[in-house]
């Protein structure tokens, strides 16, 4: 990872991520934490096992990782509501 960014400081990595986001026309501040959070959410959304995500994120407790699974629960509810409203 550090070989790609050639940086070791988290604040410098965040600066580089924001430059990349700007180049991609993403009008939102991003950080390493944001990228990690998005990755975890997408992994769970696509069916990854929560203990796999826990290990990837370095969480000692699966309860910490469960936060991402709770986000997925909200996504499921929204998708069901969207589907129900489109049938009306």
Automatic annotation (TrEMBL):
Membrane-crossing ranges are: none
Read off the InterPro entries from this record: DNA_brk_join_enz (IPR011010), Integrase-like_cat_sf (IPR013762), Integrase_catalytic (IPR002104)
The protein's GO terms of the molecular function aspect are: DNA binding
Q: What domain of life does the UniProt record list for this protein's source?
A: Bacteria
Keywords noted in UniProt: DNA recombination
Name of protein: Tyrosine-type recombinase/integrase
Q: What is the lineage of its organism?
A: Bacteria, Pseudomonadati, Bacteroidota, Bacteroidia, Bacteroidales
Task: Extract one GO BP annotation from the record.
Answer: DNA recombination
Which ranges carry the Tyr recombinase domain?
Answer: 1-82
Keyword NADP in annotation: no
